[in-house]
Design goal:
The chain folds into three domains: 100 residues, no CATH class; 76 residues, no CATH class; 97 residues, no CATH class. Helices cover 49% and strands 3% of the residues. The strands form two sheets. It has a two-stranded antiparallel ribbon with strand order 1-2. The protein is globular. 48% of the residues are buried.
Length: 286
């Protein structure tokens, strides 16, 4: 069964998608399913329109998106809404969502963070600002929300050049470059733990590389090499999809892994997005 049919078959009656099975609808799998439908040319299908309506009705007064209706606080997931093509997110107020994303920073931003990095042995250019994005407002910044917020703001910048957008994009990129692990990749955000160098993880290495598409600094070669090592040993279909997306963004042509997906929304959606990127259409970058 084609991936788009699999995705549509998992959609709940309310228009959203669950993480797995027939559970309640959540914002994250719904956004990824919408991206996958758009990548399959179904961004204006009845399934996509129902999902866009579900998403628009759950946009909060502050412009952000919460993980699900019962959560009363907007989170990093707002960036996923901005990554959607406009035709696949009809009804979502993108201006208010963008304002919410722009207003978020990690609590460790600024000179305190730079001092911590210095004391932990990470040497960075102290003239740079390392403002990443947290999972929740007021928390520490991490790799994945920073990478996806960076990609979302880059999409907005291509449509409307703005000094504030450019500034935040530069800050987010600097954050990712500063948070690389010693092996060249990324983990969730800590380069050291208990005084030891932390190892990178497959999925975060993939999303970090994806967010740094177009960057040609010396940091990229070891990150690409680490991503290729991760992919060769990867046992997670979802992580492998992120690695493929990251490597494709830097001109590599990785082999798709054997299908080990278990029919869950996120696995199918990310596999669809990686397959589309391999064919020349990367919805995170287009």
């Amino acid at each position: 069964m084609p991936d788009s049919e699999e995705i549509q078959g998992l959609q709940n009656r309310d228009g959203g998608w669950p993480y797995q099975g027939r559970g309640a609808s959540w914002t994250e799998p719904t956004c990824y399913a919408l991206l996958a439908l758009a990548a399959s040319g179904l961004g204006q299908s009845s399934s996509a329109r129902a999902a866009a309506q579900w998403l628009a009705h759950r946009q909060r007064a502050d412009g952000g998106l919460a993980p699900r209706e019962s959560v009363t606080e907007s989170t990093w997931l707002t960036a996923l809404g901005l990554l959607l093509p406009p035709e696949a997110a009809e009804g979502l107020d993108r201006n208010r969502a963008a304002a919410w994303v722009l207003a978020q920073t990690g609590r460790e931003s600024g000179w305190v963070y730079k001092l911590r990095m210095f004391l932990s042995g990470v040497r960075t250019d102290v003239s740079l600002s390392f403002d990443g994005w947290p999972w929740y407002p007021g928390a520490a910044a991490w790799t994945t929300p920073t990478a996806l917020s960076l990609l979302a703001l880059e999409k907005l910048e291509r449509q409307n050049t703005d000094a504030e957008l450019s500034k935040r994009i530069a800050q987010g990129r600097s954050f990712l470059l500063a948070r690389r692990c010693r092996d060249g990749g990324w983990n969730h955000g800590s380069t050291k733990s208990l005084g030891y160098d932390s190892d990178s993880y497959p999925e975060t290495t993939g999303v970090g590389l994806l967010a740094l598409h177009g960057w040609t600094g010396p940091e990229i070669a070891p990150a690409v090499a680490r991503a290729e090592e991760h992919l060769a040993a990867c046992e997670s279909y979802q992580a492998a999809s992120w690695l493929r997306l990251g490597l494709l963004a830097h001109g590599r042509q990785p082999q798709a892994p054997p299908s080990t997906r278990r029919g869950q929304t996120m696995e199918i959606a990310l596999g669809t997005l990686a397959d589309a990127a391999q064919q020349g259409r990367n919805l995170f970058l287009d």
